[in-house]
Structures are given as structure tokens and as C-alpha cells.
Amino acid sequence: MAKVRGAVKVDIEKCKGCSLCVVACPTKVLALAREVNGKGYNYAYMANPEACIGCANCGLVCPDSVIEVYKIKVEADA
Amino acid sequence: MAEVKDIIKEGNLVYKKSKVLTDKIMHYCPGCSHGVVHKILAEVIEELNIQEDTIGVSPVGCSVLAYNYLHIDWQQAAHGRAPAVATAVARLLPNKRVFAYQGDGDLASIGTAEIIHACNRGENIVVIFINNGIYGMTGGQMAPTTLEGMPTSTSPYGRDIAMTGHPLKITELIAQLPAVNFVTRQAVHTPAAVRKCKKALQKAFENIGEKKGTQFIEVVSTCNSGWKLSPVKSNEWMVENMFPVYPMGDIKG
Amino acid sequence: MAEYKLMKGNEVIAEAAIRCGCDGYFGYPITPQSEIMETLMLRKPWEETGMVVLQAESEVAAINMVYGGAACGKKVMTSSSSPGISLKQEGITYIAGAELPCLIVNVVRGGPGLGTIQPAQSDYFQSVKGGGHGDYHLIVLAPASVQEMNDFVELGFNLAFKYRNPVLILSDGVIGQMMEKVQLSEIKPRWTDAEIEKISGTWATTGKKSNRDYHVITSLELDSLRQEKFNHKLIEKYKVIKENEVRFETFQCDDADYVLVAYGSSSRICQKAVEIARAKGVKVGLLRPITLYPFPTKKINEMCSKAKGFLSVEMSAGQMVEDVRLAVNGKVPVEHFGRLGGVVTTPNEVVKALDELIKKGK
After folding, report:
1. How does pLDDT run along chain C (362 residues), one tens digit per residue?
2. Nearest partner of B107 among B138, B140, B81, B76, judged by Cα
3. Angle (CA) C263 C268 C270, round 5°
């Protein structure tokens, strides 16, 4: 059975660290980094990348449109 | 297991910023609902392929600078006057899709006459009404939509309805007008809400393409800076306090 | 063949608008100018030329409709009378700040406040000094006849588009309500989309074309240095307007010892006053500014070499007289005469005021 894997790319310098993507993620992939970007915001990043299913919920709720979402289908591990 | 770098490839892209959005960094506070509404507005314009036919009218307030973020022709209206401005544009360019983007102070206070009469004439425009119960840009003052007891910088002890009246449900008022074709109240606080709000916007822009008359979309929104809460807490506060007064869903059409 | 008609000043504004290819009129009823919108509604130009005519919910809405239409590169206009023009000032300053061309007609009545519905010229300051907030000017045309009410509509639109600046026709209840023979203008079609593209294609919001960046019509500039630069741009524009667009008329000024300065309906009264005074042996002439902004400052200053005094005759407490004094710059006495509150000055009253000026000079 095919399984879905996703990944997100955050435009770190434009992220304002509002955290709305973090709470919108159904599989708890995203978190705010301890580091800050050039504007001093703790930006969003994939803390738990394996759990990403590419649902794009994070992208949808992002007010600054800084998230791109990618998705592939992979064969389930035998 | 596939590596992240193998997934992040152009062919696997499923969600990205709309081409109708410019590359300018939005001036809005972190977590502001305006950004989400701008995004889905851009997506609708892109998906309906009406970028060349859309003319936006921006208000006074935080979204005065909306024209920096969408690649369409824009006019910036005086406080509250966007529906009058949009009226003329829609009448003089009847084949264009014209929308007015307004906040609650703009639409429901200083611009009450203009919005009521534009809607009563059934102007063929989309009105996007961002209601966060506060004047955001000027520093969180009381708006006509401010909830009873809600503290703002001009009602620091909470809105006293005996002194300043009740939260104005202008969307319900507008729904009473016969020439208004579609009235709905939406929010953008969850992925499901964003999808629903986008569908409403799409319907509204399709409807003015078919010259069905005024389309009115209220988006109950947050102002986390004005509310003095985090973006996430603001959404929770909105659901708990705003939604009972401003319930979600279609009101007409 | 020329077409003549007996018409009211207000009616001819409407007729001239249709004939010059106006795209839209947005108004609100107020005495003494309601015939403008009434004539348009009766004429139904939307059937003839496609011109949009709309009765707005207020003067504020009407002027903002003008903003929206002008921003599309369309020929749009509004009209009102003094209290209504006060309400329009918000929109007018936005229009000036966004550099939009449009035509505004003020058929002045006496004030302040609700005042009277009778004619006055007490909106001079409001018209030529700004009116709304911020540093800006309108181009102000002052018709003195029904014929000029007709002619200044097209002239006003031409100037508005030439300079991307709002133009005001400053009329009054006399000119608006009186009937005279008028030669109507030739009928010209409204501009096509292609013509609008040619005339205003660099700025008008007609929908973003694929071959250009998007257009924004706004008067907002948050960067002070850029706002200052814009203010200087406006100053430069007004300088060009002052150099090129001053219009005035003189009547028996060649040998005049004294000069009456009057515009609009007062200038008609002053013509008679000149006749009466000349019959009594007083060498007096009349200077009639046709543009109040730009004001014929240079002409008045030149006249000081011969003239011994100026009398500004206006139905106000003395407004234009300040610009006459600035032009004269202390060289000779300048006095004001005018009836107020809707009372129309008589020629004999002007002659009497002139006698007093002459006596004072001796």
C-alpha cells in the first residue's frame, strides 16, 4: 500500500513566528526554532519531518504565505 | 525512508504562494488574519483567471496597504468610503470585478451610510469585511463591533453598552436588503475555515462575474496586538467570545 | 449649424456635460443647484451616450464616487452648493492628493452653516486656498454667464486632464438660476477604452494589463521624505498652472484711474457700475478674473502703475480682496465692497463704495 510523505519549506527570513502553522499541523511536524531570523523571530521549522503527510494545512493558515508544501507517494516498508 | 531533500523537489510541490501575491513582506503583525484573507483572495483571483479584470478598493486602517500585496489594480479610499468608490468603478467599468476590502471601524462606523446604500443599490461588487472588534492600526480603540465588556484602549474598563451601545451586527442588517445577493460570515482560524472562506470568496467573485449584485463576506478575525494575546490564544479567544455574538455561516444566498 | 437655446445656468451644466462626453455624474440634491441632476435624470444620457448618472446617498458618497470614476481615467463630475461642498472637502483633498482629474461645480449660497439659499460668493477662500486639509490647490473657474457655465464644463475637463488636477467651477445662485440664450457645444462622443489608454494609460486603474505593472491610486505616503518630494511635485505643477492658465477679462481699463475687481455675478453688476461712474466722469474700469486659481496677480500688479486704487466687489465679507491686496502689494489703496447673506449688490451701491475709495485717496 502506498503511503504519503510530505515536507515543508519555510521562507525563514519572511516567517514571523506566529505559530499558527504549528497548531494547524495534524501530525505535529512543525515547531518554532530556538534560533531567530534576521528580524528576530523564532521561525517555524520541521521538528519532526518524518511525520509530515503534505496536507498543506500549515501553508493554508500561514498569514505571510511563507510555506511551500511538497508531497510524494512512497511504497510502504515491507 | 525518503529524505526531506528528496521530497522538496519542484515536481512534488503541492502548495505554494499564489502568483497574484507580490513578494513584499506584509507589514501586518505576526498571525494577523489579514494575511490569510489576502492569500485566499489572491488564490481565488488566480484560479478564476481574473487578475486583469479585478480592481480592488482598499480602506483606511491596517489594510490600507493591501495594495502592496496583490498584483492587481488598486484604489485606496478614504475612511469608510470604499463602497462609494467601488460603486463608481463597477458602474463605469461594468465588465471588471470590483471588490471593497474594509475593516469594522471603516465599514460599520464611519462608513455605515456608504455600505448600507451601496448594498441597497445592489452594486455589483464584492465586499470583504474584516471584523476583529477593534481599530487595529490606530492602536486598539473601541469599534462598533467591540463585544460587551471587551477592554480596548478607549474602553479600558470594558465596553459599557449603556454608554456606547451594543456590538453592531451589521452583516445581519445588510442581509435584510433585497438587492444583496450573497451574505456570509466566515473565519480563517483553522485550515477547514480557510478552505470554507476561500469557497465563499470564489462564489462571490463568480457571482459578480454573472452580475448577480452585491456579495458580502464578513470574516470574523483576530487582532492579537490589539487584543494583547498571542496569535494562537487570539484564535481561541475569538472562537470562545466572538463566535457566539457573530455566528458562522451563510446568512443569505 | 450652431444650436441656441434659452436655458438656466444649472440646466446648461448638465447639457454641456452630456455633450462633451462626460462618463459619469454623481450628485446629491441641494438648493440652488438641484436642476443639474434633475436635468440629467430627465435627459437620460445613459440611453444616448452611456453616461452614468447616479443620485448618491450623500455629498460625501458622491465625491468618493467621483474619486473612483476618475481613478479609472473616466471623465466624471459632481455638483453641489456651499454646505454640500463643505462635505465634499474630504473627497476633494484625496482627489488632489491622488492627482485625479475631475470636475466639481459649486453653485454658491450664503453661509456660514446652513445659511441661506440665496446667492453669495462667500466660498472664495474654501475654493482657492485649499478647502480640505493638506497643501493643494484646485483650478478654479468663475463663470459670469450661462454661456460660460456651458463653456467651462469642457474647459474644466480639459484642464483637469492636462494637469491631473481637480477643477472647480465656482458659480453662484444668480448664474445657476438665471436664464440666458446659450450657444450649445458640439456633441462629442465619450472616450473609448483605447482613447483612455492613450490619455491616462500610465496611471489609470482599468485592470492590470499583462504588459504593465499594476497601478495604485492612493494619496498615502508613510515615508516623510517621499511625501515631501510629492508635495514639491505638486508645487511645481501649480507653478506651471500659474504660468499658463491665468484667464481674465478687462472692461474699460485702458484709461482707468480706478479698477473694480469682480468675478461671476458681481462682475456683471460692476459692468453697470462702470457705466454709471463713467457717466459721472470717473475713469473706472473692471478686471474680471476668470480663473480665481491661478489668480491674475501679475496683471493686477501691472495695473498699479496707472491705477490709483482698487475696489474688490464680491458678495462676501472680503475674501478675494486679500488676493488683490497681495497683488497690489501696498502700492495703492485696496478696498472691499459687498453685500452679504444672499443680498445681491446693486450697481449704485458699488458706485457709492467707489466714491468713498476715491475720497479716501485724496
Report:
1. 799 999 999 999 999 999 999 999 999 999 999 999 999 999 999 999 999 999 999 999 999 999 999 999 999 999 999 999 999 999 999 999 999 999 999 999 999 999 999 999 999 999 999 899 999 999 999 999 999 999 999 999 999 999 999 999 999 999 999 999 999 999 999 999 999 999 999 999 999 999 999 999 999 999 999 999 999 999 999 999 999 999 999 999 999 999 999 999 999 999 999 999 999 999 999 999 999 999 999 999 999 999 999 999 999 999 999 999 999 999 999 999 999 999 999 999 999 999 999 998 77
2. B81
3. 85
Residue C197, Cβ neighbours under 10 Å: how many?
15
Q: What does the block give as the cell for A76? A: 510502504
Cα gap B203→B206, rounded to integer Å? 5
Among candidates C159, C112, C135, C196, which has minimal Cα distance to C290?
A: C159
Residues B154, B96: contact at Cβ < 8 Å?
A: no
* Boundaries of domain holding C347: 248-361
- As a whole number of angstroms, the distance between CA A43 and CA B232 comes to 15
B101 in reach of chain C (CB within 8 A): no
Which residue of C23, C26, C72, C88 is the best one to mutate when testing the B interface, meaning the one whose CB has the most B CBs within 10 A? C72
Exposure pattern of B17-50 as b/e (b: 16+ CB <10 Å)?
Answer: bbebbbeeebbbbbbbbbbbbbbbbbbbbeebeb
Judge contact between C296 and C274, C-beta under 8 A. Answer: no
Residue A57 sits in a domain whose CATH number is 3.30.70.20
- The string of DSSP letters for A10-49 reads E-GGG-----HHHHH-TT--EEEEEEE-TTS-EEEEESSG
Q: Which domain holds residue A6?
A: 2-75
The H or E element containing residue C87 is helix C82-97
What is the rounded CA–CA span in Å between residue B58 and residue B60? 7
Strands C291-293 and B125-131: unpaired
Separation in Å, CA of B52 to nearest CA in chain C: 5
Q: Where are the domains of chain B?
A: 28-132+141-252
Q: Tell me the H-state helices in chain B.
A: 4-7, 33-47, 82-92, 104-105, 112-120, 161-164, 170-175, 191-209, 224-227, 231-237, 243-245
Which residue of B lies nearest to A43 if distances are taken between CA atoms?
B30
**Which ipTM did the prediction report?**
0.97
Same domain flag for C50 and C151: yes
Comparing CA positions, the residue from B55, B233, B146, B215 lying closest to residue C74 is B55
User: Which residues does chain B have within 8 Å of residue C65's beta carbon, measured at their own beta carbons?
Assistant: 84-85, 87-88
Among candidates C224, C207, C223, C225, which has minimal Cα distance to C215?
Answer: C207
Total domains, chain A = 1
CB–CB of B12 and A49 under 8 A?
A: no
3-state secondary structure of C20: coil
Residue range B28-132+141-252 in CATH 3.40.50.970: yes
Q: How many CA atoms lie within 13 A of C143 on its CB side?
A: 32
C158-177 per-residue burial string, b: 16 or more CB within 10 A, e: under 16 = ebbbebebbbbbbbbbbbbb
